[in-house]
Amino acid sequence: MRFVIVGYGRVGARTARVLNEEGHDVVVIENNETKIERAREAGFEVVEGDGSNESVLRRAGIEDATAVGGLTGDPNVNFAACMVGAEFGCRTVMRISEDYRQEIYEQYADDVDDVVYPERLGAAGAKTALLGGNFNAIGDLTEQLRLSTVTIPEDSPVVGEKVADVDLGEDGIVYAHGRAREAMTIPLPGTKIEAGDQLALVTERDALDGVRTALLGG
């Protein structure tokens, strides 16, 4: 599958790398010279220009892309890129800052397939650390689903496993990983779990005890 990533900052670079390591075709759109050089050094095809511009997106092959990710720090650029992508039948994902007002979020959410808040992953990890526990339910996503974080102890049965191989069955999924002193983010396919790592989870509300046992042992 072909993916167009608009923006090669922290979020865009990590996302591009994960997709690439999973065998997908990734093209990056960037207008910052330093980031352009960094992306090319990493082996990515780079289209220089404004990711909100349709002609630039066409040069990146938006017509044949499976999805477009507007992942810059500017939600206006991200939204414009997604709107162009939608015209070509792409799945659209845009980054937004968590401090945007609810009505602004709803406006974006109605028009794109998914909205992501990178800051939220870091906040989840920070709350786990502040509470001092190793398994915390951060909050409700729906009536059935919970957002939780876990700090992996030395005797956890998943130490040494790849994050992608952690199997919680139908009870939940691991959607982010972080090492000590690092923000949680999308794990690379080969990332192995170490003691002290943090995992962010989406779990069935009634399955927290089972998930806790699977990750912490006992």
Automatic annotation (TrEMBL):
UniProt superkingdom: Archaea
Domain RCK N-terminal: 1-116
Keyword line: Ion channel, Ion transport, NAD, Potassium, Potassium transport, Transport
GO biological process, one term: potassium ion transport
RCK C-terminal domain ranges (all copies): 135-217
Ion transport as UniProt keyword: yes
InterPro entries per record: K_uptake_TrkA (IPR006036), NAD(P)-bd_dom_sf (IPR036291), RCK_C (IPR006037), RCK_C_sf (IPR036721), RCK_N (IPR003148), Trk_Ktr_HKT_K-transport (IPR050721)
Functional description taken from the UniProt entry: Part of a potassium transport system.
Annotated protein name in UniProt: Potassium channel family protein
Biological classification of the source: Archaea, Methanobacteriati, Methanobacteriota, Stenosarchaea group, Halobacteria
